[in-house]
Design a protein that fits this description.
The chain is mainly beta. The protein has 2 domains: 112 residues, Sandwich (Jelly Rolls), CATH 2.60.120.380; 209 residues, Metal-dependent hydrolases (TIM Barrel, Alpha-Beta Barrel). It is 12% helix and 34% strand. It contains 6 helices and 26 strands. The strands form 6 sheets. Strands 13-12-11-10-9-16-17-26-25-20-23 form an 11-stranded mixed beta sheet, with helices on both faces. It has a 4-stranded antiparallel beta sheet with strand order 1-8-3-6. A 4-stranded antiparallel beta sheet has the order 2-7-4-5. Helix 2 runs parallel beside helix 3.
Length: 438
């Protein structure tokens, strides 16, 4: 086994010069390395440094700030990293200088190669306790919600979550555990969108089949100036390149790119790029459901591809751990699709057939579009509001005239609602947001 230490002193000046610092090392030809182990040590109270790796040919993985160690072997790797041959040539440990102090901090990178370089921990497979909601939390016992939502001919409304994380980035649940939690909530699909890696993609079909749920491959392209979800089995998207390049790469490969949590604290969207798909309802907005900021961002996005005048609207829980108190499906994204395959789910999103609700469960108000009509389901006593702004006309009132607000009377009520006057939402009397639709 070979072992080498690289000692660095890094500060905000290094971050300004190069936010993604490479620490190069060699695996020589004929070395016969069967394993690579990398450890990172620094004062975590003084800085935030992300961890990743590339080989001479491709990106091998990223764990951000969630790990201080990873190992790669031909047949196994630490979650977040891709197993495979340790090809000879120029490798690099990639350090993401996310939060750096003015005064330099000591950083030690230890690189070991050889048959005894380090082991790979197994991913937990046992499902966690049920996260609530309806349905079974284990494979084979799936109980669907059976909402019976009205849909255009040949389509069905499926409930899902388009933003969630596992141990392949900074989540605390394995893929199987996260999937069990989603099934326990009664979801039909779940996008697994780990940060800056696609190491989870090969595992999704098998786990999805075992739990009878559609697991949609995704990657959260994550930087200091904004996050975006790249949906589809399209390979890795290089987060170190400009955001416009993310968009072109994703579109050329047949995927979709959505802007995530556009106004959230220190990871809001700062790039001058509009993708046509917007995570309007994110868990960071869930605590203040009458907030006006997301609607302002939606108005600023007008004219992007997607539905008339505004992007396709998406929602995501950004699930990381049960401890945060918001299980998968908080909020829920509904898509009107031909079936539950990843291809059909993405096709529905691409064509703007989406609706959002607080939760997936029976009795929760939902607002869905069928042709030129909106149908409010389980929404008796709520208020239908049209348009993202606080004024303007929104939908035709069959009782006479045209208005922006109308009380919903009944468990299933149909309204004439032109898409160009949307988006529309259901509110409680205290203005708590309940559902959104185009």
């Amino acid at each position: 086994m070979t072992r080498e230490e690289r000692r660095l002193r890094l500060s905000i000046d290094d971050q300004i010069e190069n936010r993604y610092l490479e620490v190069p090392f060699e695996i020589p030809a004929g070395h016969g390395a069967d394993a690579l182990e990398v450890t990172l040590a620094y004062d975590r109270d003084a800085a935030v440094i992300d961890l990743g790796c590339r080989d001479p040919e491709r990106w091998r993985g990223w764990s951000g700030g969630a790990r201080s160690r990873f190992a790669i072997q031909p047949a196994a790797a630490t979650p977040g990293y891709e197993p495979g041959e340790l090809v000879p040539g120029h490798w690099a440990v990639v350090l993401g200088l996310h939060g750096m102090p003015a005064e330099p901090v000591d950083v030690t990178v230890t690189i070991a190669t050889g048959v005894d370089a380090g082991g790979v921990e197994d991913e937990p497979t046992a499902p966690p306790p049920s996260e609530g909601g309806s349905g079974s939390s284990g494979p084979g016992g799936r109980t669907r919600l059976g909402r019976g939502l009205p849909a255009p001919d040949g389509l069905t409304w499926y409930a899902g979550d388009l933003h969630a994380h596992t141990t392949h980035s900074d989540g605390t649940l394995s893929i199987a555990q996260l999937t069990a939690a989603a099934v326990g909530r009664g979801l039909d699909f779940l996008a697994v969108t780990d940060h800056n890696t696609v190491s989870h993609h090969p595992h999704l079909p098998g786990v999805g089949a075992a739990y009878d749920i559609c697991l949609l491959p995704g990657q959260e392209v994550t930087t200091h100036a904004g996050h975006a979800n790249a949906f589809g089995d399209i390979g890795w998207v290089d987060f170190r390149r400009p955001a416009a390049r993310w968009l072109s790469d994703v579109e050329e490969r047949g995927g979709l790119l959505s802007v995530n949590h556009p106004i959230q604290d220190d990871c809001g969207w700062l790039y001058p790029v509009r993708t046509g798909f917007l995570e309007l309802w994110h868990i960071s907005w869930f605590l203040d459901l009458t907030a006006t900021g997301p609607w302002a961002h939606l108005r600023a996005s007008a004219g992007a591809p997607g539905l008339p005048g505004y992007p396709v609207l998406l929602g995501g829980s950004d699930f990381h751990t049960p401890d945060q108190g918001f299980p998968p499906g908080t909020p829920t994204t509904w898509v009107a699709a031909e079936d539950r395959t990843p291809e059909a789910i993405l096709d529905a999103v691409r064509h703007g057939r989406t609706a959002l609700s607080r939760f997936p469960g029976p009795g929760e108000p939902v607002l869905v579009r069928v042709g030129d009509d909106l149908v409010a389901v389980d929404a008796d006593g709520t208020v239908l509001v049209g348009g993202p702004a606080a004024d303007g006309l929104a939908f035709d009132n069959p009782e006479g005239g045209t208005g922006r607000r109308r009380r919903v009377r009944g468990e299933r009520v149909t309204f004439s609602a032109p898409p160009e006057r949307g988006p529309y939402r259901l509110e409680a009397a205290d203005r708590t947001l309940l559902a959104i639709s185009a």
